[in-house]
Every structure is written in C-alpha cells, then in structure tokens.
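One thing: can you check what follows?
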Amino acid sequence: MRVALTRTQEDIDRDKHLFEREGFEVVPLPLIEEVALEFKLPEESFDFVIFQSPRAVRFFLSRYKLKGEKVVVVGEKTKEEVEKWGYSVWAMPENYYGRELLELFKGLSGRVLIPKSAVGRDEVIEGLKNMGFSVYPLSVYTVKEVLYKRKELLKKLHESHVVVFASPSAVKALIANLQKEDARAILKEKKLICIGKTTKEFLREELSLDCLIPEKPTMESVVNLLKSRHEICI
C-alpha cells in the first residue's frame, strides 16, 4: 500500500521509516515548507510560555533562552523538543488539542508568551484572553505552499492509496495546486487520514470530504491506524 505524506520534506524524511518498517511504501508529497521569520522578544517578563509544535520550539529557542517561565506544550513530540534544549515541561494536556490546553489554565492568571506559526489558528490565544490572561503571540515562522507542475502532482496522487494530511495548511496547499473540484474528485477515491480534529474540520469545510483520525496526532499513531484498519488496504 502506498501512502502519500504531505508535510514538509524534512518531516517526511524523518518519518518515512515508520511506515516503511511496517511494509508501507511512502510517496513523498511535501505540500508545505516552513520558513523562519525575524522576530524580537518583548522586554516584559512572562509567567508562561506555550509551544504548540516542535517547530515553534526550535525557531524560538535557537534565538532566545527561557527565563524561568512555566513551559506548557501540546503533544509528546513538542515536549521532547523542549527537553532537547535543556528545559523541563510544566504541563501538557492529556489530549493534544487547543481546547484541552485551556483547561490547564483554569484558576490561574498571568502573562503568556506564545511563539507560533504566522498562519496558526488563534483558538488558544482568544481562549486565554477571554480567561483574563495577558497574551503575547509571537510569529517565529511561517508556512509556504509548495507548487507543483500539474502532471507531477497528479502522478503522485494517482499512485497513492492513502493521503495523510497533518495540518489545514497542507489542504490549502493542495487546493492552491488544483481546482477544488479536481482535488475533491481525486481525493474521494482515496482513503484520507487527518492528524487532528482541526484538519478534519477544514477538509470537510473546503472539500466536503471525510477522513479518519488516529488516536493521537502523531505519525506513529497514523501507522497504527493503517495497521489496524484492514478495510483501508487496497
């Protein structure tokens, strides 16, 4: 079975062995690339810093050191990245979604720094503001679409049995390459996997398509889903 991965080329190179060791053939289809942005840290001190992706950790901590802020992360991979830089994580929600993260802040107060993607959703930011926190979102990287020649893109899609989307940005990038009608017609013939509810909802809104969601938003969990769902196999 051939599985198209639509993350960055760096992510695909890192994760493809997870699929290959279980007998799946990876079709590299990087639809996005992530680019560092210039940013300046505000002079104010913060009580908390929230990281919602390993990429945000790397782009931020490669330029600034933490000064005793309580570190909150969404997901094991982000936690591991923080620890690689020599910091400990104060809290992580059991489920890796923004709404679950807000639960950690109930009954607390203070100033929150959020290094993030320039195209990230604002659910956590708005939620914390509504709870009375002073929030400083800081864009440390952005996501750009990878554009393909139509023939090359169609070849990769047609030879894939499963297409994995790890973010709404990847779905947007596919639509940037193809008309919505074309994208919908091709994808409805595939088995689709979305890492997380946000990506699932975006796919449904933009292309009226449904997808499976792994137990956790990780590539390891995607592989487990592929192994356990026999009806996916072509």
